Amino acid sequence: MNPVNWARFGLLAALWGCSFAFIKVSLDAFAPLQLAFGRLLVGALVVALILTVTKGSFPQRAVWGHIAVASVFGNVVPFTLFAVGEQHTTATIAGVIQGATPLVTLGLAAVAIRTEKPTARKVTGLVIGFVGLIVVVGPWRTHGFGSIGGQLACVGAAISYAVSFVYLRRFIAPYKIPALAVTAAQLTCAMVITGLITTFSIGWDLPGELTAGPLLSLLVLGGASTGIAFVLMNRLIADAGPTTASGVNYLVPVFSVAVGAVALGESITWNVPVGGAVVIAALALAEGRLPLPARRGADGEADASAAAPAAAASAPPVASDRAQGAVAREAC
User: Fold this and answer.
1) Statement: residue 44 has pLDDT above 70
2) Bridge-partner residues for 302, per DSSP?
3) Is this model's pTM higher than 0.90 or not?
4) Among 12, 72, 177, 326, which is least packed by CB within 10 angstroms?
5) How far apart are alpha carbons 170 and 241 in whole angstroms?
6) Pick from 127, 108, 130: which is nearest to 243 by CA?
7) HEC states along the chain?
8) Is the pLDDT of residue 209 over 70?
9) For the residues 1-18, what does the mean pLDDT come to?
10) Averaged pLDDT for residues 242-261
11) Rounded to whole angstroms, what are the CA distances from 300 to 120, 121, 308?
């Protein structure tokens, strides 16, 4: 990735890193479906405003069917399932489970996208990154993991995210639509779908008292962690591919722990900086910023394929990825 995309990567991780705390606070007043609808409503309005200011437009009618499918897997299902999951399990476990998204994406992309075949570098980096993620969140320090149902809800959310990453790259990126337009259409579709489901299932009576805390958390969750964040994510998917883009989930728990320490006064133990360093190094390895150890044959000489320049390893899988990545540079 180029420096601009790395900046988007870091900002996206920071925005999503705060989302678990916002979800927890918002659940004091809203049911999971109501929470999902609220954040989608605010997010859709924010992105629509950005689209208007930048003189953009919604996509052509031909692609709306694909966008509707992407909105179900990328917004409706995971937003609802993570809210349900956090009712019954800890935020730490939810963060660990979301961290598995890149590994799921890697497997799905290998099956669905010819140009996203797994390489030794990516597999090694993603596996090491997941180990680093577990070190960061330190699940051994929690007193309880919550219910199996809550954990399974979070697993379902992570799988749904992975499906959406691959679906966007496979069926929407080839249209060369600006990422901002895709995001506006995706959030709008998800908002309508979630609103209909909520209306005909649980209704709009709030289960808790609507105070300033839950309301403000919902507004920030929708505006920043949903609206702006999904603009960044769709742009990364177009530029860097779904496997690389989904790697942002490794850094989400790192930011989540940091936010907890600064805003909530939670202590930082040895595992946070150590695990964070492992995560960052693993991402650099997967992206070709760090070399893989050279394999040596029987004659003691390094395997030429393992000693290829890092610049070549960091390039997109095939040249067509660059063409797909040329999705209207004015989008973000």
Assistant:
1) yes
2) 296
3) no
4) 326
5) 10
6) 108
7) CCHHHHHHHHHHHHHHHCHHHHHHHHCCCCCHHHHHHHHHHHHHHHHHHHHHHCCCCCCCHHHHHHHHHHHHHHHHHHHHHHHHHHHHCCHHHHHHHHCCHHHHHHHHHHHHCHHHCCCHHHHHHHHHHHHHHHHHHCHHHCCCCCCHHHHHHHHHHHHHHHHHHHHHHHHHHHHCCCHHHHHHHHHHHHHHHHHHHHHHHCCCCCCCCCCHHHHHHHHHHHHHHHHHHHHHHHHHHHHHCHHHHHHHHHCHHHHHHHHHHHHHCCCCCCHHHHHHHHHHHHHHHHCCCCCCCCCECCCCCECCCCCCCHHHHHCCCCHHHHHHCCCCHHHC
8) yes
9) 87
10) 76
11) 21, 22, 17
Phi and psi, residue 206, nearest 5°: -75, 135
Using a 10 angstrom Cβ sphere, with 0-12 exposed, 13-18 middle and 19 or more buried, the burial of residue 269 is exposed
Which is nearest to 239 in space by CA: 323, 181, 162? 323
